Amino acid sequence: MEDEIMRFLKESIERNEREAKEALMKKKQEKVLQLLEKSGLGKRFAKRTFENFRVENKELKEALLKSKEFTKYFPHVEKGLLFMGPVGVGKTHLAAAIANELINNLYSVVFGNVTDLITLIRSTYSKEADITEAEIIKTFTEDTDLLIIDDLGKENMSEYTATILYQIINRLYEYEKPLIITTNFNSSMLKRKFGEKGDAVVSRIAEMCEFVKISSDDWRLKNERND
Ligand SMILES: Nc1ncnc2c1ncn2[C@@H]1O[C@H](COP(=O)(O)OP(=O)(O)O)[C@@H](O)[C@H]1O
Ligand SMILES: [Mg+2]
Residue 53 C-alpha to ligand 1 middle, in angstroms? Predict the structure, then answer.
């Protein structure tokens, strides 16, 4: 009799634990979906993972390792990452893979190119906008665990753009928050792009990010027929 009671108790405890775990998982999944939607990662980017990143040379191997390490220790990382290299070598793929992994761990990530970020900020100027430029900058810096700027330098760098970027980068620096950047340009080219603010921006970035150089054959060209 006692045995039976014990078994009953044990089973109901186990069932309760299982149900609680399932409820928690479901909640987590919902949160992940919400975070994904907010991040700016489109469907295309959501498929870019560490698992489907191929390492064909030493640089790619190193870049993958650095990305995984960053994710593993996040948010306790000393530096962010700046992926530098020609078009099609997997810079955006790695940045998106980091974003996906962190979102799965319930961190909030904003992922976008400068044009997307600036468009969002610009939209605050419209009369109907109920969120201000300062608030958007706050969203990118204070309220977000990680900002990823994709393809830095590709956009038309007006003085306005340079100023906004400078503000964002400075704010992240003040909050000691990591930053991830992908770019086709080297430091001196980036400096030139930023004009007057060039030295200030690039030296901040150099302080905040570890530079990860990648060069390989253009993946897109190689896989043209499979795309
Ligand atoms: N090492 C790699 N392994 C798997 N896919 C890759 C790799 N490098 C690039 N790709 C794929 O090739 C395409 C272009 O890569 P992308 O990361 O956008 O290049 P980049 O940002 O360096 O210009 C994407 O579809 C990406 O998933
Ligand atoms: Mg890219």
Answer: 8
CATH code of the domain occupying 40-226? 3.40.50.300
- Which residues approach ligand 1 with their CB closer than 6 A? 48, 52-54, 60, 87-93, 182, 219-220
pLDDT tens figures, 108-141: 999 999 999 988 888 888 877 788 888 889 999 9
Least confident of 13-22, 25-34, 198-207: 25-34
Which run of H or E residues covers position 82? strand 80-84
Phi-psi region at 90: left, alpha or beta (left = phi > 0; alpha = psi -120 to 50): left
- Cα dihedral angle (209, 217, 112, 94), rounded to 10 degrees? -60
Nearest atom (ligand 1) to Cα of 48: 27
CA distance 168 to 24: 35
d(CA 104, CA 90): 21
CA 48–ligand 1 middle distance (angstroms):
8
Residue whose CA lies nearest to ligand 1 atom number 20: 88
Determine the distance separating the centroid of ligand 1 and the alpha carbon of 218, expressed in angstroms: 8
Please list the residues that pair with 210 across neighbouring strands.
81
What is this structure's pTM? Answer: 0.87
Q: What is the pLDDT of residue 217?
A: 63
Among the bound ligands, name the one nearest to the CA of residue 48. 1
- Mean pLDDT of the region 159-169: 92
